[in-house]
Amino acid sequence: MHHFHKAMLAGCAVALALSSAARAEDAKGPPGPFPPWQHGDNNDATPRGLPFTVPEVDVLADFHGSLDDPKLVLFVGGNYFFAMAPLVKAFEASHPEYKGRIFWETIPPGLLVKQIEAGGTVTVGNMTFTVKPDAYFAGLKKVEALIHEGKLVGPAVPYVTNTLTIMVPKDNPAGMKGLSDLGKPGIRLAMPNPEFEGIARQIKMSLAKAGGKDLETAVYDTKVKDGSTILTHIHHRQTPLFLMQGRAQAGVTWQSEALFQQQVGNPIGHVDIPDADNATAVYAGAEVKGAAHPEAAKAWLAFIRSPDALQIFERYGFKPYRGG
């Protein structure tokens, strides 16, 4: 993964700069990668045909692989999009019959449910397509609720846990020290939208632990109204991008997302949240009712909590689920 860091960072300076001079420079040569962690690994399709990705104009960053007769379709809550390529590679090593035939999406889990309810149909820009999932992955409580509703087939399979952090630009120029600083009027935030993103529920709990209802209200009401909190639709893409663009000075994400951005060399840092104020998420999955490839779904669900898979998750700070 590290061999492309220098080239990617050089491209990031072009792709993310907001000045007109940088924009003019960008127009003179090939554009940098966009998003600045998109480097081709998250596509299981072979062959790929005509390469047509135009930074900031035509980029389908959360849809991976080929729709041409996939043998396994995974709907994955987007906050570990970066782990999917190595997970798929490891899965295919032991299940070669699926090599090049896996399609996966990494949009927020609530939106994935809406896509399931729409019969698998989704529209991105001018493209509308239908793809029905074999397995769905989100927080354990959400998965259990969908099993109860009859959308998923039990049992739920929990596999890893994750905690929150405050993502900041490299070197933390705003001097963020903790959650209480998020409520300051002069601090610009990028925060997950409670309407779309399940992480917002845990963030609100952490804000209340750290500063009571007043801090939660400041971040998710007062600052939204005055424009100093930007609510994201897809925080695992928007938050690091907004920080690198200078549109925000901080945002709460899962710690794995900040660790990934640091590992690939992007100018991102993080501020730890104490255990007493933090929230822990349990990640789980289940087969989708009426899945076209139920045996493939079962194979992935068995793999996702295997030692090989857990070793990949641990690279990004996830911990194995140790519950009952």
UniProtKB/TrEMBL annotation:
Organism expressing this protein natively: Methylobacterium phyllostachyos
Recorded GO MF terms: molybdate ion binding
Residues of the signal peptide: 1-24
Keywords from the named record: Signal
Pfam families: SBP_bac_11
GO biological process, one term: molybdate ion transport
Name used for this protein in its record: ABC-type molybdate transport system, substrate-binding protein
Region (Disordered): 25-48
UniProt entry tagged with the keyword rRNA processing: no
Keyword Heme: no
